[in-house]
Amino acid sequence: MKLAVVIPAYNAEKTLAQVVGRIPRDVFGIWIVDDCSSDGTVRVAGRLAQTDPRLRIVRRENNGGYGAAMKSGLQAAAKEGIELVACVHADGQYAPEELPAMLAALEREDLDLLQGSRIASGTAISGGMPAYKYLAGRALTFLENRVFGLQMSDYHSGYLLYGQRALASIRFDDLSDSFDFDLEVIASARALGLRIGERPIPTHYGEESSSLNPIPYGFRVLGVMLKYLRGHYR
Q1: Nearest CA-CA partner of 66 in 224, 234, 211, 229
Q2: Which residues touch 107 (CB under 8 Å, ≥6 apart)?
């Protein structure tokens, strides 16, 4: 089956080229979704596309947020009949080199959705994750496991691999345009009875800035859990 990569990108001109260059050559297609960046992200993407025929550029006219960018990328990949999609972040925080191992785990365990776990790898703190993010994440994960009935160690890396059944059955258009999009994907997959798993991934926190505000995000996560308990994602 064809594996594609979707890269949601916002003001990622400093890191984008390096991330694309690390994606394995056997990946069928790469969709870079520019979420109305104000820097040279589109220019960098255009230069990369001149030498890499796998690369497509999706330009959003308005800055819609991380979830909105992911929806645009997933829709574009679906139009070309892609059956497997991985989300790779443009800031280089997660290693594209892990994609072959993640794909092997998805197929070996017959999963529909695979989450890359920074906690299971033991590299969260050593990889530079701030202590407050680590502690807050552990507390949220405790609640999430009880709400979703899973035994995962990390719900928030965003390094997701979507299998064929997940792409076909999850109603992505109904999900959040913000950073809680990934958790809503997991909640939807769980409500639909899809098989969800995780695999350890290395973690790297560099000097890149993040537009994620942890306090509103935490409340959004709690809101996703409440909606799941109310049957919203069925």
Answers
A1: 211
A2: none
Domain-by-domain residue ranges, the chain?
Answer: 3-229
- Regarding the domain delimited by 3-229, which CATH topology (the fold level of the hierarchy) does it fall under? Spore Coat Polysaccharide Biosynthesis Protein SpsA; Chain A (3.90.550)
Structure tokens at 96: 């594209």
Tens digits of per-residue pLDDT, 81-90? 999 999 999 9
Residues in a beta bridge with 57: 32
Return all residues near 122 (Cβ < 8 A) that are at least 6 apart.
200
pTM exceeding the 0.85 threshold for the entire prediction:
yes
Mean pLDDT of 118-143: 88
**Length reported for the chain:** 234
Please count the other Cβ atoms lying within 10 Å of the Cβ belonging to residue 34: 25
Task: Output the six-digit token pair for 198.
Answer: 């995780």
